[in-house]
Design a protein that fits this description.
By secondary structure, the protein is mainly α. The chain has a domain at 2-57: Arc Repressor Mutant, subunit A. It is built from 3 helices and 2 strands, in the order ββααα. Strands 1-2 form a two-stranded antiparallel ribbon. The longest helix is centred in the first third of the chain and has 14 residues, at 11-24. It is globular. 9% of the residues are buried. The model is unreliable at 67-75 (pLDDT under 50).
Length: 99
Amino acid sequence: MIVCHCMGITNHQITAAVIWMRSADPDTVITPGKIYRALGKRADCGGCMPLFLDTMRNCANLGPATTSPSSHTIPQLGTGAPHEGRPQSHRLSERSIAV
């Protein structure tokens, strides 16, 4: 089925692009813009976006690869680890104010 008449993109091409991107990088965020670029095309009028997004969402490989939660270590706030490269006391309200 043709999804984008302006660029001649089919649902099979969208699915193939999603599968290709997911196999290249399992953690990548797949967007319509990335799919257009992977196909060597550009969005034109935007009238196809609702159908384009539905086609993307119906692709089984759209979501990120599932891994066990124990394989990722997420630092907890309040444990003394720096947050975004700053010490936790980066806010004025948390600093001691000299009177």
